[in-house]
Every structure is written in structure tokens, then in C-alpha cells.
Amino acid sequence: MEFTAKQIADYVGGTVEGNANATINSFSKIEEGHEGAISFLSNPKYTHYLYDTKSSVVLVNADLVLEKPVSATLIRVPNAYESVARLLKLYDSMKPAKSGIHPLAFISPSATVADGCYVGAFAYIGEGATIGEGCQIYPNTYVGDGVTIGTQCILYPQVSVYHGCRIGNRVIIHSGSVIGADGFGFAPGANGYEKIPQIGIVTIEDDVEIGANTCIDRSTMGSTFVRRGVKLDNLVQIAHNTDIGSNTVMSAQVGVAGSTKVGQWCMFGGQVGISGHISIGDQVRLGAQSGAPSSIESNQTLIGTPPQPERAFFRQVALMRRLPEMYKQIQQLQKEIQQLKQDNGTHE
Fold this sequence. Notes:
Layout: E1 3-4, H1 5-12, E2 15-17, E3 23-24, E4 26-27, E5 37-41, E6 57-61, E7 73-77, H2 80-93, E8 100-101, E9 106-107, E10 112-113, E11 118-119, E12 124-125, E13 130-131, E14 136-137, E15 142-143, E16 148-149, E17 154-155, E18 160-161, E19 166-167, E20 172-173, E21 178-181, E22 186-189, E23 192-195, E24 201-204, E25 209-210, E26 215-217, E27 223-226, E28 231-232, E29 237-238, E30 243-244, E31 249-250, E32 255-256, E33 261-262, E34 267-268, E35 273-274, E36 279-280, E37 284-286, E38 291-292, E39 300-303, E40 308-309, H3 310-347
Parallel strand pairs: 4-5, 5-6, 6-7, 8-11, 9-12, 10-13, 11-14, 12-15, 13-16, 14-17, 15-18, 16-19, 17-20, 18-21, 19-24, 20-25, 21-26, 24-27, 25-28, 26-29, 27-30, 28-31, 29-32, 30-33, 31-34, 32-35, 33-36, 34-37, 35-38, 37-39
Antiparallel strand pairs: 1-3, 2-7, 22-23, 39-40
């Protein structure tokens, strides 16, 4: 399917600079552009590719100042990254959705699967489970007893949703993720550790996306919550009784310990660790590999362990790099002081 630069500009609310009739039929990274492709430029580090790209059309930010002529047609928009995301979503929506129940799928007689759903081979849907309209349950996925799944959800292959968990509308869960496994609860005793039954559930609200091999544990009592619009990367661990606030995003290998409340619109970089039984405020941004042992107030950008403002952290890192040199200087000063003491003693 082909579109013109003008059609694309009208869709994303941009203005064309160049040939409004230039046609595109594919997407490409700007450094790998080719005729008939549309690319985007949002990171200034890639600006030099703009002048040599072979892409027919490039989405750019409206305030971009050109240093020399370009051969591609430009579409200027307020936010190029946001605009290409809209276009990719449109492109993805044009792909035909799977539908129908595979004869090798198992669906309990007491389960309810709405019209327009796809259930792949060897998928399992347990007793009393409810699957909403337009859901796609891929092969080898397990949906336990009493699970409720809303409309237009996608569960990719080998997802496991344990009994009783609740999933909202338009939720995407990628391969290998486990929703509702037991929380890590054990009571130490004289003869070892006694397991504490985890009788709660996991509640995932609307428009959440969960990356591959991510685990969200069921609560001891009540529910673990992942609120509306949360985006979790691959290999994220959400422990029992946590509450992840709406529109929060977490990169790969983030771990949140039990009974912790995370606010809205937070952003955690890769391998961030959050201690248990604490509270993280709204709009907290933590840099990669930060560790939070205690509660953090809202509206802060922090990094390190314990987290601190970026400028203070990078000053410390700069000093750390100088430690070997400083250590040598201290040793030299100690020798000089010792020599002065000896000289002093000689003159006395």
C-alpha cells in the first residue's frame, strides 16, 4: 500500500517541505534509507544522516534548522518520534488479525470466549475463565481458572496467567511472562522456612504492555496492582502486594520488592532496584542501576545507590576516577611529612 507525503502530513498534522506527491510504501531507519521508504529524525546525533539518506520522505521536528540542502521530502511536525509512532501503529493495525479457535486448543466448558477471538493450538483456558471480544490467545498460553480478560487483549505464546487474576482491556503480554505466580513469602522457623500461602490475585488495568519473561506476583491477600497505561520491558520483576501507578514505565531487569507503592508517570532505567515496603512518589525518574532503599518524594530525577541528583552523582564518579592518582599523592605527602618529622628530630 502506498501513501503520498501529503496524505501522511495530513494524518500527523505536519507540513510538507519538498515534493508533496512523493510516495512511500515502507519504513526505514534514516541511516539505511532507500527509495520509497519513510524515515524519521528526532535525535540530534543522527542529523548528519539527513543530508545523505536515500529515503523518499523524512519526518523531522518543526524547529529543525537545515545546514545544507536535502534531497528527501521533509514533513515537519511538532514531535517526529511521536508522529512515527502513530504511523507505525496505523501500519500495524492494517495487518489482518488472527481469529478462530484451533481444534487443538482446550477450552473448559464453563469458560466464556467472546466472538472474534483467536485461540491458538495447545492454548489452555480454565474453568470459569472469561475472555472478552477480539482477544488473541496464542499457542501454548495458559489461562487459569476464574481468570477475567477484557477486550482486544493479546497474549503471545507461552504466557501463563494463574487462577483468579484480572486483566483489563487492550493489554499486551509478551511471550514467557507469568502473571500471578506466588509472591516470595516464607516465615523462618526452627526447621526451615514455612511457606506463607499467597491467596490474593494480580489486577492489570487497561492499556498495559508487559515485555517478554516478565513476572508479576500475586498478593498474599488482596491484589497486586499494575495500573492503567503502565509499560514494562522484558525481564521485569514485580513482587507481591505492590501497586504500580498509572503510565509508569520500567526498562529491562527492574526489580520492585514487595508491598511497595510506585506513583504515576515514573520512569525507571535498566536494572533499577526498589526496596520493599516503601513509597515512590509521582514523576520520579531513576537512572540505570540505581537502588532505592527508602521512600522517594515526587518530581525528582535521581541516579545511584542511594539515589541522588544527577550532578552530585557524576561529580562523585569523576572523583572516583581520580582516586588512584589522589592515593599516590597522599602517599607522597605522607613520606614528605615523615621526612620533615625526622629532619625536625635531627635539628632538635
